[in-house]
Amino acid sequence: MSARPAAMGLFDASPWQVIDDAEGGVRYWPGFAALRDVDQWFAALLANAGWEAHRRQMYDRVVDVPRLTATYRVDQLPDDLPLAGMLAQVQAIIPAPFNSVGLNLYRDGRDSVAMHNDKLHHLAPGQPIALVSLGASRRMLLRPKRDPRDPGAARANAIRIELEHGSLLAMSHASQRTHEHGIPKTAGCAEPRMSVVFRVRPAPR
Ligand SMILES: O=C(O)CCC(=O)C(=O)O
Ligand SMILES: [Fe+2]
């Protein structure tokens, strides 16, 4: 586990560099926006986003996806959601031509997302993923993938990041090849938590 630096105040322009790579790696900014804005974003999205429950095939069973989701194109953002304002504040820190936003709602500690990397064919090469966390804080695990050339090698431990209300996480495109991430279930968390994930989708061919 990698320790988070102790001296992180309100907004500190220099992030915690969680992982380094040639494309900016994985960086974490706690409290990147004013608490008043962050509280409003959470309440408005909880009430008004088009939350959907999905089911998916897992081997021979159909299972509930253990969280609610919503997705929007940046050129078609609904007026009653605060996403355009959020995007402007995100882009002030992570300048990238984000064109898609995906929301996840973890209703309580029983909701989760399994370890995965974001699908590379749905991401423009070289562009980061920007993830805003709202509501209850939940732990993200970031784990180096196995080296296919050395499958017997000991596996490095997962890095744990406590994703706090109003934090911003940048993950490089390159980090999706080297690491996987997930939000495990957690006992004793009764409050909802949301992530708002801005991505750059490749232009349709
Ligand atoms: O909710 C999170 O922090 C992670 C979400 C995620 O990994 C995804 O939407 O691909
Ligand atoms: Fe992901």
Automatic annotation (TrEMBL):
Q: Which InterPro entries match?
A: AlkB-like, AlkB-like_sf, ALKBH3, Oxoglu/Fe-dep_dioxygenase_dom
Keywords per UniProt:
Dioxygenase, Oxidoreductase
Indicate yes or no for the key word Oxidoreductase: yes
Q: Which Pfam families match?
A: 2OG-FeII_Oxy_2
Q: Is Transferase included in the keywords of this UniProt record?
A: no
| Molecular function via GO | dioxygenase activity
List, for all copies, the residue spans of the domain called Fe2OG dioxygenase.
Answer: 97-202
Which PROSITE patterns would you find in this protein's record?
FE2OG_OXY (PS51471)
- Its signal peptide is none
- Provide the protein name: Alpha-ketoglutarate-dependent dioxygenase AlkB
